[in-house]
Amino acid sequence: MGSGNQRNTQALGSYFAIIDCNNFYVSCERVFRPDMRKRPVVVLSNNDGCIVARSNEAKSLGIAMGTPYFKAKKLLRENNAGVFSSNYTLYADMSERVMEIIEMFSPECEVYSIDEAFVSLRRLQEQPEVWAGKLRKTILSWTGIPVSIGIAETKTLAKIAGRTAKKSSEGVFILPEESDKRKQILEGVMIDDIWGVGRRLGLKLRNIGAENARQLSRIKPETARRRFSVNMERTVRELRGEPCFSLELAPPAKKAITVSRTFGRPVSSLKELKEAVSFYAVRACEKLRDQQSRAVVLTVFANTNRFSGNAYFGKEVRILPSPTFETSEIIREAEICAEKIFRQEKRFVKAGVILSGLMPLNCSGPGLFDTSSKRKKEKLMETIDKINQINDAGITWAAAGIKKPWKTAANRKSPRYTTCWKELPQAKA
Ligand SMILES: [Mg+2]
């Protein structure tokens, strides 16, 4: 931990803020349904299975996160609750709007999940509470989404401040400097509610006598590292007010991923069109995983020569059942699109796949939307990507065709010097 002096010289400007949308999915629904403002509202997971978002009124009814809908149905009906199936396209779009406003207010911004962003207050020109109040008001009036803002010296502490902010009427909370109040707040945060701890580590920490954030902050950092990991040491230091986790300023993820090509020769069979579209879907999914996102909207298009007599442009849009980056699932949908687009007498010269409604990986609350079998399939995808990165022959999908007679001619392409092991430039001595 930094010495006492160091702390005092730290201007408030070096603080972090977390901006967290309140009950995000519910708030999105309420924007377009003002009649739902005062009523309990819940949002259901894929296939209306479980409750994945609750308004405060629904929380007060005692409905827990992840409750199967059928178990809460009666209670919800008795309380005149609003019940919505999830609308990921809407949530992804609302999220983008909120994040754009946050970026206007603070150029150093890490979009942490669909409804949360960390920002650095390093270069802040005004009082943090004034800044936060303005940001909160702007987001509310431009998008209709209420947010809470927690501010503290480290990301871990900002998360804790955010919890208090959520309960306060102003929606903004700055963690006070060393004081009884601060101790009290840290004592009120249970061990597994600390950012980066979770249930499994929480159990182990309880065994060594750390049941809340204050107790964890008092463990020696060296002990935390020895008995757990470097990350645990960092968490301990962060709880003591020493920043260890910096903002992850990833390059802004693309808002849509497009893979399209002109065919090497016209395609007039459904089989070949499906193969081509599947092949582009494979590439698009790789890009999707590469930028750590899932998609909810799939667009497939194919067109004939537009200078020919009766040019045809076919397009199909599918909303996927839940956000995914899983190739086989997207291929399946892409093939359905291809079937709809296909016309017997047409000669297609180009096709493409667009993935949009993109969401960062960590936004979909693991374990809530995803069945464990889905999670397993996604793990498999990640493994295949790793294999394909080092081995160019790699693993491919049968649906994408083996010979690919329609493939764009690229006989004169230069080697992929930097991205493929087999094509690395060779030096001879
Ligand atoms: Mg939230």
UniProtKB/TrEMBL annotation:
Pfam families: DUF4113, IMS, IMS_C. SUPFAM superfamilies: DNA/RNA polymerases. One of its GO terms (molecular function) is damaged DNA binding. Its EC number is 2.7.7.7. It comes from the Bacteria. It is an enzyme of class 2 (transferase). Keywords: DNA damage, DNA repair, Nucleotidyltransferase, SOS mutagenesis, SOS response, Transferase. Residues 16-198 form the UmuC domain. One of its GO terms (biological process) is error-prone translesion synthesis. CDD domains: PolY_Pol_V_umuC. The keyword Transcription does not apply. Belongs to the DNA polymerase type-Y family. This is DNA polymerase IV. It comes from Sedimentisphaera cyanobacteriorum. The lineage of its organism: Bacteria, Pseudomonadati, Planctomycetota, Phycisphaerae, Sedimentisphaerales.
